[in-house]
Write a sequence for this structure.
């Protein structure tokens, strides 16, 4: 289930003779895309306290990612991430354009997936070196995720 043929750079999928191979995992999160909001601050006892009002949403997304990842270990290698955010189509009028150019911002939705994947899909989101993203209207709101990472083949026993 690739996000799109034009989103991935050309490259080998397999290697021989000790060359690196690329592993790919793709899955769909059956949920409307959500952006990550900025942390809020409020005064408690004369001191400023930071808080996030998205703990339940992040927990739900992390659970979906963990279920899709099927208990594999987090990736510790460089990661190429492809995301397709399928936004709900407005019911009030017909939308002729497929590109979604309204809020929420694409970068905030990417950050939500990056943060929720920490410790589940990748060890840390700093391992993501390349991201391909799109935000479109769809009759089926979801997030399509494709993760590509490099792994070295194991040496055959002597």
């Amino acid at each position: 289930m690739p996000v799109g043929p034009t989103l991935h750079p050309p490259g080998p999928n397999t290697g021989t003779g000790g060359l690196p191979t690329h592993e790919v995992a793709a899955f769909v999160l059956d949920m409307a895309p959500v952006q990550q909001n900025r942390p809020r601050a409020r005064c408690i006892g004369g001191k400023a306290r930071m808080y996030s009002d998205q703990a339940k949403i992040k927990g739900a997304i992390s659970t979906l990612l963990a279920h899709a990842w099927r208990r594999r270990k987090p990736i510790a290698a460089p990661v190429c991430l492809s995301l397709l955010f399928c936004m709900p189509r407005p019911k009030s009028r017909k939308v002729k354009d497929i590109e979604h150019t309204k809020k929420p911002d694409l970068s905030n939705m990417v950050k939500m997936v990056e943060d929720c994947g920490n410790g589940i899909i990748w060890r840390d989101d700093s391992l993501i070196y390349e991201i391909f993203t799109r935000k479109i209207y769809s009759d089926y709101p979801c997030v399509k995720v494709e993760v590509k990472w490099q792994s070295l083949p194991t040496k055959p026993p002597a």
Q: What stands out?
A: Residues 1-16 have pLDDT under 50 and may be disordered. The radius of gyration is 19 Å. Residues 21-37+54-151 form a domain with the 60s Ribosomal Protein L30; Chain: A; fold (CATH 3.30.1330.70). The first helix runs from residue 55 to 69.
